[in-house]
Amino acid sequence: MLTSPSEPSEPSEPSEPSEPSEPSERSGREATPGALPTGDVTRFRSVAVVGAGLMGRRLAGVFASRGLIVTLTDADPSVLPEAGHEAQRLARELGGAPGSVRTAVHLEEALDGADLVTEAVVENLQLKRKLFTEMAGLAPTAVLASNSSVLPITSISEYVDDPSRAIGTHWWNPPDLIPIVEVVQGESTSLGVVADVMALMERLGKRPVWVRRDVPGFVGNRLQHALWREAIALVAEGVADPETVDLVVRDTIGLRLGEMGPLANADYVGLDLTRSIHEAVFPALDRSVTPHPILDDLVRAGRLGAKSGQGFLTWSTGAREAAGAALAAHVSAELAARLDSGA
């Protein structure tokens, strides 16, 4: 049984994995070098979601909205009634049939007959390793997926007898709105499993991206936290206050990034200019390999951000909920505008 609640916490420090070996192809399907075989989405009919926190229950709703039979479980059975109702409500909102989500108190019951098991528990490597070992034994033929946002799937599945069926599926929050899912190939993940999971994500209406090397943070969080590291350093060095840093990001590069990614932007302005800028600015950028001391100080002081009322900014009562609603509305409007424009 699980031994920890499903709400997110600070992840254990992941170590950089070794150079990946060629993944074993155990599905019997041939793939040309650098390409995936054709995915078989029909293999997935029943899904178990382990961890019924905010992410897990929404994942259950997304799976159910496309006709999959979903079982949701959690180490804390008291959260299951509410989580199950929320998952069913989301499935209906997304166009699915109600009743395709059920809850189970025991892990054994939840995984019985599952074709896919996805975990959404806390970002703790030891917990995830223990859970993956249990999942592998209880669901000996299922694909085993982790929703970790930073921890390498190779490390999580280290003690699984057949790691060829272990894969990372990093959904971004809120998972019913954000289209990208990072599908992370571990060192031993079968290419057939990668292809099948990519096909499933497309069936769910997502835009899966194949992350071919299992590095901590994958693609999105490596980029995001590189930006956060520099933002924190700018505040710590007195270059600007937190409000100014956020404003500059939102109303400059933030406006452009929705249309043009960083590499396209580098091409657009010219790689010669890009190189010249790098030559001038790189020596001054923060290159810390541990969290910044100002972040350590804030955490030690209990200034944890919105949930405590004070972090880099001050958060009044209800401000976190209002910010979450505003963010969801912004993402929905942005996606609707792209759909209207055919992007």
List the helices and strands and how they pair.
Elements lengths: L45 E5 L3 H12 L3 E5 L6 H14 L7 E4 L2 H5 L4 E4 L5 H14 L4 E4 L6 H4 L9 E6 L8 E5 L6 H13 L3 E5 L8 H17 L5 H10 L1 H5 L4 H8 L1 H11 L11 H8 L18 H23 L2
Parallel strand pairs: 1-2, 1-4, 2-3, 4-5, 5-6, 7-8
Antiparallel strand pairs: 6-7
Descriptive overview:
The chain has 343 residues and is of the alpha/beta class. Helix content is 42%, strand content 11%. The chain is built from 13 helices and eight strands. The protein has helices at 54-65, 80-93, 107-111, 125-138, 153-156, 191-203, 220-236, 242-251, 253-257, 262-269, 271-281, 293-300, 319-341; strands at 46-50, 69-73, 101-104, 116-119, 143-146, 166-171, 180-184, 207-211. Strands 3-2-1-4-5-6-7-8 form an eight-stranded mixed sheet, sandwiched between helices. Helix 4 (125-138) links the parallel strand 4 (116-119) and strand 5 (143-146). The longest helix has 23 residues, at 319-341. Residues 1-31 have low confidence and may be disordered.
